[in-house]
């Protein structure tokens, strides 16, 4: 018997560590397993290859990413297996999400509205890609590009070398079915969060602290939640069960020598190297612009102030 029952552990849009800094969605029980037509229940399994793209101009995938704070701006972080350190919270709409289980590859491209020091700045774009055991986080920071080369398993490695690969397509094959619920789904079809989320009738599964909901009509994964990892929502109409291998070309050109002006933990070939970084003065210049901002900052203002600071170096 799982600790969470129907309409429990459902989570929502979170934005800080405090328990009240989350928009919980509404949920009501539709039917327990013994009163549900099990032939219409679909376990939360990913296709072995898939592409998720916007639908009619709306994001096909949105999430709130939660992970350890590894830099003061939360430009580069990834979910971990505990919530002991201070955490970063970043809600974002995807312009594309791709997965290939056969080649252990995944990529998500985002349009991001930042919080904290950079909350008065325009949106940024980001691409997070993992191929084999390496990960690359490429951010376009308004006037300069940044690449962070990463080893996703490094924060927990006690006897190196340690490696972590992309998630298994059938990770949730042993998930327990809790029942059918009418639950709010954030952002889908341009809906909001919390009480403003779109009500959908979905099937609720649990595995350890992971929660997943599937659509009984399409069979697709629609909503996923795990504390201190994040919230993931998919539009059932956004999936295609195939992928263009070209989206996984790696290492990304911006992560190689001569690519992005800011390269963190990257060697000249764009591979992960924990002791090689360059261009931190560009990031410090943007931090200075943010400290002196005071109010909403336009892209033109960011560029002008950034160039003025860099000219003095």
Topology:
Blueprint: E1 12-14, E2 22-24, E3 27-31, E4 49-52, E5 61-68, E6 87-100, E7 105-112, E8 124-131, E9 134-141, E10 144-150, E11 176-185, E12 198-207, E13 210-214, E14 221-226, E15 230-234, E16 239-240, E17 262-266, E18 272-278, H1 280-291, H2 299-311
Parallel strand pairs: 10-17
Antiparallel strand pairs: 1-2, 3-11, 4-6, 4-16, 5-6, 5-15, 6-7, 7-8, 8-9, 9-10, 11-12, 12-13, 13-14, 14-15, 17-18
In a nutshell, what does this entry contain?
The protein is mainly β and 313 residues long.
Structural features, described:
The protein is mainly beta and 313 residues long. It has a domain at 102-167 and 245-311. It contains two helices and 18 strands. It has a 16-stranded mixed beta sheet that branches. The protein has a two-stranded antiparallel ribbon with strand order 1-2. Strand 13 and strand 14 form a beta hairpin. Helix 1 (280-291) crosses helix 2. It is globular, with a radius of gyration of 20 Å. The model has no long low-confidence stretch (mean pLDDT 92).
- The helix/strand order is EEEEEEEEEEEEEEEEEEHH
Strand content: 35-45%
Q: What's the rounded overall pLDDT mean?
A: 92
Number of strands: 18
Per the principal axes of the C-alpha atoms, what is the gross shape? globular
User: Biggest sheet: strands, sense, closure?
Assistant: 16 strands, mixed
Classification by helices and strands: mainly beta
